[in-house]
Amino acid sequence: MGDVRTTVEEQLGAVTELRATLGSLVIAASNADHSVVVHVDTNGRVAGLELSPEAVGRGHELLAEEIMHVMWAGQWQVTAQVEQVVRDALSNDPELARTIRRAYDLRDDRPL
Hints:
Blueprint: H1 2-23, E1 26-30, E2 36-41, E3 46-51, H2 53-56, H3 60-92, H4 94-105
Antiparallel strand pairs: 1-2, 2-3
Helix pairs in contact: 1-3, 3-4
């Protein structure tokens, strides 16, 4: 019984650590000249925006377009980073990977 409890506690600790890592992850994406920087969190939400005076001087339509492109790039980057963090966590702990897969298989809201 002690071994099972230890394993469960270790898995819970690993999941808690993974959640903390993912919860604090923010990607800073920028355009080519770094005049627009968008910070994106793991949910794809904008967590911050930095605009240089040069970017602001481009006009609102060009600026809006540039912000959107950088935001989308940041969302792709953060998605890739989340996938890598999860992949690394699961590869380091095969039992945790099996537990998460089993929990996912039991979900009713999975895509068909």
